[in-house]
UniProtKB/TrEMBL annotation, chains A, B:
InterPro entries reported in the protein's UniProt record: Cro/C1-type_HTH, HTH_LacI, LacI/GalR-like_sensor, Lambda_DNA-bd_dom_sf, Peripla_BP_I
Organism name: Caloramator quimbayensis
Pfam family, one: LacI
Lineage: Bacteria, Bacillati, Bacillota, Clostridia, Eubacteriales
Domain HTH lacI-type: 5-59
HTH cro/C1-type domain location: 2-53
Name assigned to this protein: Transcriptional regulator, LacI family
Length: 344, 344
DNA sequence: GAAAATAACAAAAACGATTACGGAATTTTA
DNA sequence: TAAAATTCCGTAATCGTTTTTGTTATTTTC
């Protein structure tokens, strides 16, 4: 195992001091352009790269970002969106010169080790937290947190913590409006769970659309299915018993939408001929299902980028609280006009 | 932003020198047990945690692992298996006291920055590389690599690099054997692409099973579909033209299996009544499809753990080359007995 | 009971960078 | 042309640890 090159080796080879080499590498002003060029050339030849650990320690700028994801996103049927957002976040962080270290938490670990402890121990300049629930300990800690932090899909009113997410209310509105435009009047909603911030926003959008088009809101049409396909299937079973006259269901996730479609098929209903379905997320899964899913698209790439940019702005003391990504509706095959049932 | 506690603060409060505090934390022998207890208690009270960056620099043990994933796993329809393996790897690395930093590569970046450069710059003790292709620059570099490294789903004969993966040959064998046992005699295979190591192993398993049961191998029944659903759909189109008499298709991934099923449905064929399909991976997707997919399960949890353990063994100079995970067949609804066509 | 060994700690030198400070050479100013 | 400013670079302190070496008591050995 060959010994690693240090700044000293470069300095010796270039016949200058280490501080000069450092200056060359960090674009300092007080260095002769010729010297700089020469040093960089020699460094290039030697294939020298500064040791990032030493750099962190000495500069007290760590260029380290934590990416903390809740465990429940990992086990079972995990959300591919999370993965895409993570990778997008990583890529833009990379471009901006930050490395990202991966962490996970769950309700238990949150009780034993505080977020601020993680920051100081890990020397994070900031962190990106995904999958935080309203009932989490970290959610409470974040209310008065004083380190840079960015959250996805949950909002906290604290200048140190940024929040990015799709406009869920608008997304839901778009979904339900689309159904209404197709002539549907009795539209059920299968929501996530009540510990998720987005569930409230998505519910708002649903109600807003109904109100806007002067349709009655029937609370017995609203189910909570925990973001799982089985949960959605169970909800559909109940819906088919209690509300035989529904013609459309808006699901707060694609996975639940698939669960709903499968349950409907099992009961002999056809999507979209009997019942229209719209999902939320636009996972790749939405193109794979049969019929292909009409859904609300969350742009994972854009979300990841926004998170990284926001976080790094926060680190450099620029306070920008919230980034809202605009959702789009993607119309495929799971929704259909329902004029016949519209006015019986 | 409160200043972080250092070892000095603990030393001062405990009335000892910093070296004694360090000894207390690192289970050194030459320290009075009472002193140690006292120091640990005080550290606990102060909520002091050692700065990992300083620790790395001074001890020259970094406890840092790189997790490098190929870009093509990110864009487009990404494989959820990769995500699960990543998280499982992270969790066990965590338990063993290592932090993992996330990186990505692609064919281009591999040309400009060598793997060994990444190691020295990032101060990695080791790295886990996912998605490496046979045509990659890093593959070539790894042949004579002298840092600890573990690969998933690709094999290299080098004591410094470990390899873990499912027994692909056996997995394919199981899949095809299952079809043969159901009475299928004309079985097509839709493989991945030729830059993937696993494609060769999976092909081997297919041929092995045919030979074992004295069925002829017809190379025109073997397609390469790039691991995509569209590729598989295209392959199916061709198969339906050229080989109307096939009764089963083995796909080297679940995604391709879904693509095949959809294509068959579009052409008016029923799965499994007309044609049986088996996939590979056992993604959650396999349970969501209609019919539910019979497939070969890769245990992501076990793979991630094995990779982490193997890598850390490699780091501590213990040479264990390869870990092979046993695949299992999961029989669901996409395969069915085909006695009628078996002997016409 | 003097020499040797051990136990328990402190002092100081690393680790590999950044950066505050200072100083010589050169250029600008008056 | 002397003083001031600027340019360019070296010296040395620093970051928060670990680790080597040193030191003082105490214990063991013969």
């Amino acid at each position: 195992m060959e010994k690693n090159l240090t700044i000293k080796d470069v300095a010796k080879k270039a016949g200058v001091s280490v501080s000069t080499v450092s200056r060359a590498f960090n674009n300092y002003s007080d260095i002769n352009p010729e010297t700089r060029e020469n040093i960089l050339k020699i460094a290039q030849e030697l294939n020298y790269k500064p040791n990032i650990v030493a750099k962190s320690l000495s500069s007290n700028r760590n260029f380290r970002l934590g990416m903390i994801v809740e465990d429940y996103n990992i086990t079972g049927m995990l959300n591919p969106l999370v993965f895409q957002i993570m990778m997008s976040f990583k890529s833009t962080a990379d471009k901006l010169g930050y490395e990202v270290v991966l962490l996970s938490t769950n309700t238990d670990t949150q009780k034993s080790v505080k977020l601020s402890t993680i920051y100081s121990q890990k020397q994070f300049d900031g962190a990106f937290i995904m999958g935080l629930k309203l009932s989490d300990d970290y959610y409470r800690e974040l209310i008065e947190f004083n380190h840079p932090c960015v959250l996805y899909d949950i909002y906290i009113n604290n200048p140190n913590v940024g929040c990015v997410g799709v406009d869920n209310t608008k997304g839901s509105f778009l979904a339900v409006e689309h159904l209404i435009n197709l002539g549907h009047k009795k539209i059920a909603m299968i929501n996530g769970h009540k510990d998720a911030f987005v569930s409230y926003e998505r519910l708002d959008g649903y109600m807003l659309a109904l109100n806007r088009y002067a349709l009655p809101v029937d609370k017995s049409l609203i189910y909570y299915a925990d973001f799982t396909d089985q949960g959605a299937a169970a909800a559909v079973e109940e819906l088919l018993i209690r509300h035989k006259d529904i013609t459309a269901i808006f699901c707060a996730s694609d996975l639940m939408a698939i669960g709903a479609i499968n349950a409907l098929n099992n009961r002999g209903y056809s999507v979209p001929d009997d019942i229209s379905i719209v999902g939320f997320d636009d996972l790749y899964l939405a193109q794979l299902s049969n019929p292909k899913l009409t859904t609300i698209k969350q742009d994972a790439q854009a979300i990841g980028e926004s998170v990284a940019n926001l976080l790094i702005n926060l680190i450099s003391e620029q306070r920008i609280g919230r980034v809202v990504i605009q959702p789009e509706i993607v119309i495929r095959e799971s929704t259909k006009a329902q004029y016949l049932k519209a006015n019986p």
